[in-house]
Amino acid sequence: MSATATGALIGAILAFAALAFGFWGFLLVAVLAGVGAVVGRVVSGQLDLRALAGVFTGRRTS
To answer: Where are the transmembrane segments (predicted)?
Structure first.
């Protein structure tokens, strides 16, 4: 799936959540989608949490 199609799908899901559940439902869907994206990158090996934690604790630089 292309980046354009993915973005359109995410936009449609967020628009539906805003219409159906109001602002707080929209916000909850957006936050959970972000968490799901991070978990997906960790599982696929595209995001190393130890290196990321090192950057935030000041042990390493990006």
So the answer is: 12-40
What ranges do the domains of the chain cover? 3-57
Using alpha carbons, select from 9, 39, 60 the residue that is nearest to residue 52: 60
Q: Global pTM?
A: 0.70
Rounded CA separation 49/34 (Å): 16
Q: What local confidence, expressed as pLDDT, does residue 23 receive?
A: 93
DSSP code, position 58: T
Q: Which amino acid is at 61?
A: T
What does the alpha-carbon distance between residue 26 and residue 33 come to, in Å, rounded to a whole number? 11
C-alpha distance from residue 57 to each of 43, 45, 53, 61 (Å): 23, 21, 6, 10
